[in-house]
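As a warm-up, study this chain.
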Amino acid sequence: MPPLSILLKPASSGCNLRCAYCFYADEAKVRAVPNYGRMPETVSHALIEKAAEAAEGSVTFLFQGGEPTLAGLDFYQDFVSYVKKTVPPGLAVHYAIQTNGTLLDREWCRFFKENRFLAGLSLDGSRECHDRFRLDGAGKGTYDRVRQAARQLEQAGVEYNVLTVVTGYLARHVQSVFSSLCGQGFRFQQYIPCLDPLEEERGGQDYSLSPARYEGFLKTLFDLWYRELEQGRYWSVRYFDNLLWMLEGHAPEQCSMRGCCGLQYLVEADGSVYPCDFYGLDAYRLGNILDDAWEDLDRARETLGFVEASRRIPETCGQCRWYPLCRNGCRRDRVLEGDQLGASYYCEAYAGFFAYALPRLGRARILLRRLQTT
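Now compare it with the structure written out below.
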């Protein structure tokens, strides 16, 4: 088996915020059990043991939520301690956590630094955009608390990046968002389009992102990013980095850009395993880490046809000049055609963006190489 990448939900769908567009909360609503609580040691230890046996080369544990820090620092201390006892020499272990940052303090940050955690900090750019949708339980904005978390991560020397959810509102304020992130020194940025609720028609929410808005967002963000690059300042925007990497002839590292789903594992707090965090739903349950061997989980994925369904290339994609770069985006964004996955909801957005940006993407490769050699 190749290197393993495992998503864990140590606090299940529990969260101390009430972000309007949270797809984890949306998934929880339609499951038989919305929240499994904190992951017990019987589950985390079984997962570590089976991952250590199955992985080759490396294993990556990525902690998500809800809000994963709700599991408590003692959960992570025990987890890392058991990894050290269990994982054989020669198997590299990597840790990452995606957090809203509001519960972080010096002790958390010291732990992340000592154990080489890569932290993803959820921050929607500017105060105006962030506090519009990322609210706490009392309905108050959380921007200042997240900025404080960023300062604490920096002071502790923790490697981290910023994750920004692109809503229809944020897409109209790209310049202030990018300027805010760059002005505060956030070198590594990731932007992901928001998801509408399951089984609802797209575009019906205050935060919904239309294809036209997304196309405008990508074009404006690219203009701003490219202008900075021309002036000798490089900001890592994950989507653009992957496009440059693909233009060099390499496979993208970002899952949604590969053209089909990869072999992923989402482990819920009760040990239930799913093929992707976008599909943590009862209908997609592969088994349980306490009861099933790794091979059984993989067979369940094959029986479900999860990866195979994502490999279908719609006729419109097969005839499109942009497919080698677009690859029809994330499975979760593909529109159903009967019982099959069709073209991406953002098909026209990608086509418009690539036609607009491709010539400068080529030049960006040259500019970036110059910066890297000076």
